Amino acid sequence: MRSKNPFKRYPRTAFAVLVFLCAAGAVFLYFHKPGEISWMPPCFFYEWTGFYCIGCGTGRMCYSLLHLDIVTAARCNILALIAVPLIGYTMLRYGIKIFTGCDKLPNPWYHPGFSRVLVFLLPAFWILRNIPIEPFIWLAPISIWQNKKLYRKFCTAFLVEYVQLAKSSTV
Questions:
Q1: Distances in whole angstroms, Cα of residue 95 to Cα of each of 6, 20, 91, 104, 154
Q2: Among residues 68, 69, 84, which one has the least CA distance to residue 155?
Q3: Is the predicted pLDDT of residue 100 greater than 60, yes or no?
Q4: Quick one: which of 15, 118, 137, 168 is 20 to 30 A from 80 by CA?
Q5: What digits encode the pLDDT tens for the residues 38-52?
Q6: 31 pLDDT exceeds 50?
Q7: Could you give the angle at the alpha carbon of 44 between the alpha carbons of 39 and 49, nearest 5°?
Q8: pTM over 0.85, yes/no
Q9: Residue 33 and residue 37: Cα distance in Å, rounded?
Q10: pLDDT at 150 over 70
Q11: DSSP letter at 39?
């Protein structure tokens, strides 16, 4: 019996469709800010509980990343920003495997410690980003349209203070 999974039956076509959908989503997101699109659904977990989920801020992170604003992207969702290169590498690895038949690139997902790190990291990130005190509040997503000037001013002051502290501690 033939598999109904399109990735097994037609892997090249399925991969091409996946790449096309990712590119189309990126183009759409480049021209439309996530907070200004009325028909996009909000985070249901945040709407119901008032707490941020692991994915809150990912749309704003992608928008900022597409506009090459890495600082704001990190401020929206640092965990998703870290996952972007891993997902890109996985897609590259899968594409090379499909089109060349060569499976030479290492697979980071099958490392024994990877699942242990995820089991600890994801709940810890979820809990810590909802604690409203100073070091943890930086994990909560920001609104990149309302607080951008204030945020940049604060980041600049913070970096200047950090550099001065580092210079004074080395002297």
A1: 15, 13, 6, 12, 42
A2: 69
A3: yes
A4: 15
A5: 777 778 888 888 889
A6: yes
A7: 140
A8: no
A9: 7
A10: no
A11: T
